[in-house]
Amino acid sequence: MIKVEHLEKKFGNLVVLKDISIEIHKGEVISIIGPSGTGKSTFLRCLNLLEHPTNGKIFIDEIDILDKNTDVPKVRQKMGMVFQSFNLFNHLTVLENLTIGPIKLLGKTKESAEEKGMELLKLVGLAEKADSFVDELSGGQKQRVAIARCLSMDPEIILFDEPTSALDPTMVSEVLAVIRRLAREGMTLAIVTHEMDFARDVSNRVLYMDEGIIYEDGPPEQIFENPQREKTKAFINRIRSFNYHIDSPDFDLYKMHAEIEQFCEKHAFSHKMINDILLLVEEPLVLYKAQSKEMNIDIRISYSEKHNNVEITFEYPKKVGNILDNAEEDDIGVMIINNKAESHFETIDDKNKLRLTLKKN
Ligand code: ADP
Ligand code: MG
After folding, report:
1. What's the 161 CA to ligand 1 centre distance in angstroms?
2. Mean pLDDT score, 190-206
3. Using CA positions, which residue lies closest to atom 18 of ligand 1?
4. Which one of 102, 126, 160, 260 has the largest count of C-beta atoms within 10 Å of its C-beta?
5. How far is the CA of 36 from the centre of ligand 2 (A)?
6. Which residue out of 8, 10, 41 has the highest number of ligand 1 atoms within 8 Å of its CB and is therefore the one to mutate?
7. Which pLDDT band holds residue 201 (cuts at 50, 70, 90)?
8. Helix locations, the chain, DSSP H
9. Local confidence band at 72 (pLDDT 50, 70, 90 cut-offs)
């Protein structure tokens, strides 16, 4: 359905896409992952000609869309695009957002456009908002309207560029649920996303982009469980666990918190969960500080989807002992820790390892 050959895109001297060749087939659900700044958005924008490629060829249904004689607007209609920032018309009602395209560009009558629009609003669960204005909606609702608007143009493929990144964590799942439904119904989708659990279970193919190329292309089992190439491995390991080394009592607590929150948001943890994790990192650090002359501790947070739990591990020199046992019995920090998590302590070689496990909620 889409065939890309040796696509290259430069901005001035900056080579963003080096050499991209790929085929996307009808019915495929493709997730595109990779570090930020590697050209994922640029790639999607080249596909529907929001950016003009520097070199290479793009065929949509065998039509060369970079050919001067191609009817670009017509080709572009085959591809819907959903942006991080919704891009809805704020001065129109929800239903008008869905009918303006079909009336102006597809020549539909107002009645048939409205009928289809209502059908699509039902599909995304927002029929009762038809007459509301866009700014009365929550972020999650806006994004669902944006998806419905896309569908109103009868696209053959929808390109999603981080559709949930601008949303409050509580609203991510309602948008992902709508995308899942489209996938189930056989719509062809290409989704740039940081939601790794979602990417794994919704897509039948994952592209890992790095260094201006599609660095690894494979089924989700390969990319997430058994990546073949070096950079993919490093990226996948990084998103699976959060690691932080502290070697000074004056370490930057706020920076660490911010990084932990970022890690948690990638996994769509609830606010309560994030707060619990922050507490369960901070309380042992307070105990450690009180019991050790020097600061030398490694923290690791990892989320296991299989066990639906989060493990926080503290690794520090053996001589400090078990910081939970060493504390006063009525220490408030120890009480918080025992209340929120199961703890496990072991000594391996010259290191102590304290592991706290909490269920994801
Ligand atoms: P990603 O979506 O993977 O985070 P982008 O495609 O947004 O990456 O950007 C890739 C690189 O291209 C970045 O270095 C970005 O600054 C640059 N870039 C993107 N769009 C433009 C533009 N219109 N002009 C100049 N540079 C751009
Ligand atoms: Mg981007």
Report:
1. 13
2. 92
3. 11
4. 160
5. 6
6. 41
7. confident
8. 40-47, 72-77, 94-105, 110-123, 139-152, 169-184, 196-202, 220, 230-240, 253-266, 271-291, 323-326, 332-340
9. confident
